[in-house]
Amino acid sequence: MKKIIILLAMVLAFGCKSTKSTNPEIQQTDTVQETISKKVVEPNKAEIKQSIQESMEYLASDELGGRATGSEGIELAAVYIENFLRKNHIQPYFESYRDTFKLKDIIGYNIVGVVEGNDPKLKNEFIILGGHYDHIGLGKEVNGDNIANGANDDASGTIAAMEFARYFAESKTNKRSILVTLYAAEEMGLKGSAHLAERLKNEGFNAYTMINFEMIGVPRSSDMSMSYMSGYERSNFAETLNRYAGEEVVGFFQQAKEFNLFMRSDNFPFYQSLHIPAHAISTFDFTNFDYYHHVDDEPDKMDYDHMASFVAKMLPAIEGMMNAETKEVVLKDE
């Protein structure tokens, strides 16, 4: 997300309130519950937590120097992600995992893998899952440390997308195909995701929906929904996910609308180029983490139990949506 610190100060002065929805539409029907129980392979939260922490401790380590696009550190991150995808049988979508782009004298790489769907017809439709694996590199020095590690922003979202792809590659329960997309140059103005979205458009890519995971490393207050979705009112995506989850895993957050976060994260280029329901999901709400673009955004500040729970709760929501016989998620008139 781009800097919005000035707006943040104004919001905090008036306070932020969000409560869980009592909308009866998210109550689970017997039919939905039966569908989920038949299709979802129960996730192993302990295994998810271990895998998340292992990835985080490398991607947000000092060794990677803050993962600025074009740096040696982001190259190490790219290699790590490629190896993760390869190890977990997630195939490259293009000839290699890399979608290469150039910004003046800087070479950037999006990492793109695919998990093919198991339905002869629906596998031709794609669900895009993503997060940006770059960060700002160096930040303002604090106690001799000037490496902005970018654990929450956005190693956390990158790792969530990787974990969803790992789960489906192993369970093989997805009818539609999954494109897992990790972007560079988000911090330079969404340049990596914009390049990939335009490339997919030009190639006639058959995209159904897109979810971008942005800063999911810390939990929200217990009286709020687990996460919120940018552009909440632009589609019925949130209510569809909540119906399959059987609870409000994704809520409305007023500040997301006020800050226009829909246009500030890597979902937006996919909405623009492919004109599909494309949103960012986050658990960072400006009150629960003090280290945005700060050198203390480090692995030891992440809540790994929360991250594992986030992945586990989102799995049936994503799986139900991606396995529905019809395209339930649609854009709303604006």
Automatic annotation (TrEMBL):
Pfam families: Peptidase_M28. Residues 110-312 form the Peptidase M28 domain. One of its GO terms (biological process) is proteolysis. GO terms for molecular function: metalloexopeptidase activity. This is Peptidase M28.
